[in-house]
Write a structure and sequence with these properties.
By secondary structure, this protein is of the alpha+beta class. It has helices at 3-6, 54-66, 121-125, 135-152, 166-177, 183-192, 236-245; strands spanning 10-21, 24-32, 41-42, 45-47, 74-81, 92-100, 113-120, 197-203, 213-217. Mean pLDDT is 86; it is low at 232-248.
Length: 248
């Protein structure tokens, strides 16, 4: 192999932006305004420009294609994808970033995107042909990672506003995991987890009845012990599911 062949990959970034909107885990997607895959849904992203590092390229592409400011997001480099046939234009190495934030605004399309909008993760993952390139695989990996991270890290608080109730935090887990959790058990586990959440001293507004305590994210980043995906059965049919999920 020649030296030139060893450096034949172009480098791009792709963004997986996840939020909880309308009681669903939603993903930011664009409609491509250029070939290949003209008009097809895709994750926001693009090629590095001269003088940029990976983080700068990810932030720029997100702003250009969606109008969102990456500085306001919880963003991290996730994984690199380099299958030789992942892009019909040739060998392109893509560095994927995951960004998380609660109830993000409606995006504004620009750059290589003719439109940008939120779509539920389940809808996008139900058919591998919906997304361009290998973006179905990238999104699937990112969603699986987020679901796993909720078990043993404090990631769920990044989907919440600065001050939140335990019920709001439980809704994040139920939405991302796609299951129903027992409210009492969840409250006990969360409040007993060292450094997970911290009471603010305030109470949530209420139209009547008991006002819930407000919390903020605590200093911990890891959960010990891990929070298991234990389903809360509502009827006899779900009882068997509860037994299965509680062993995860």
């Amino acid at each position: 192999m020649s030296r030139r062949d060893r450096f034949r990959y172009a480098v791009a970034v792709d963004m997986i932006v996840l939020t909880v909107r309308e009681q669903a885990l939603q993903v930011l997607v664009i409609e491509r305004a250029s070939k290949p895959f003209l008009g097809k849904l895709a994750l926001p992203g693009g090629f590095l420009e001269d003088g940029e590092n990976l983080d700068q390229a990810a932030h720029r592409e997100l702003a250009e294609e969606t109008g969102l400011d990456a500085e306001t997001l919880h963003i991290r480099q996730f994984r690199t994808y380099g299958d030789p046939d992942r892009d019909p234009r040739g060998p392109i190495l893509s560095v994927a970033y995951v960004a998380l934030m609660p109830d993000l605004p409606i995006p504004i399309a620009g750059g290589d995107a003719s439109a940008a909008h939120w779509t539920t993760a389940d809808d996008l993952l139900s058919d591998p042909a919906v997304l361009a390139f290998d973006h179905h695989r990238i999104l699937s990996d990112a969603v699986d990672s987020a679901r796993d991270l909720l078990s043993h890290t404090t990631l769920a608080t990044t989907f919440c506003p600065p001050e939140f109730t335990i019920s709001q935090l439980r809704e994040v887990y139920e939405t991302v995991w796609g299951i129903e959790l027992d409210p009492s058990n969840f409250h006990r586990k969360i409040t007993r987890a060292d450094g997970f959440v911290t009471p603010t001293g305030g109470k949530a507004s209420s139209d009547g009845g008991r006002r819930a305590t407000l919390y903020r994210a605590g200093p911990a980043t890891q959960l010990y012990p891990a929070l298991l995906r234990e389903h809360h059965p509502k009827n006899a049919r779900q009882a068997g599911e509860h037994q299965e999920l509680s062993t995860l």
